[in-house]
Write a structure and sequence with these properties.
Layout: E1 22-27, H1 31-41, E2 53-58, H2 70-79, E3 84-87, H3 92-109, H4 118-130
Parallel strand pairs: 1-2, 2-3
InterPro entries: Centromere_Cenp-M, P-loop_NTPase
Keywords: Centromere, Chromosome, Membrane, Nucleus, Transmembrane, Transmembrane helix
Organism: Sclerurus mexicanus
């Protein structure tokens, strides 16, 4: 399910499936994109940040068109203890690999991968990004 911002409308709460993962997409070419994500973060329960929130930064292949400093996005990931993934959606191979990666992350967050929790995987992702 996709939403342009949070909070989600409450009129269909009883029909909404369980939320296992939230991926905030930030278009590096749009300052509005970052501001929208920052405003939406206030509507996420703090306990959900324990391995079930990721930031996906798109447009990183176009450095000349960047409106957002990548350090600001990395600091956002640090502040919310959530991994930041960078990708270029205009390239099919990277788009497919990113989709497969997000699907695997979703499987982990939904508890469908035995022996791996969302929290331990999120910490592993953050650790590998620091190296």
């Amino acid at each position: 399910h996709l939403a342009t911002s949070l909070p989600l409308p409450s009129e269909r709460d009883h029909l909404r499936p369980r939320i296992d993962l939230i991926v905030f997409m930030i278009d590096i070419k749009s300052k509005y994109s970052l501001k929208n994500v920052e405003a939406s973060l206030a509507h996420v329960d703090p306990s959900f940040f324990l391995g079930k929130v990721y930031f996906l930064v798109t447009g990183v292949g176009r450095v000349n068109y960047c409106s957002i400093d990548t350090n600001a996005i990395c600091k956002l990931g640090e502040a919310y203890c959530s991994p930041v993934l960078f990708c270029e959606l205009e390239l099919e191979g990277i788009r497919v690999a990113t989709a497969q990666r997000l699907l695997r992350i979703l499987q982990i967050c939904a508890g469908l991968v035995p022996g791996v929790s969302a929290l331990s995987f999120g910490l592993l992702m953050r650790k590998s990004a620091d190296d």
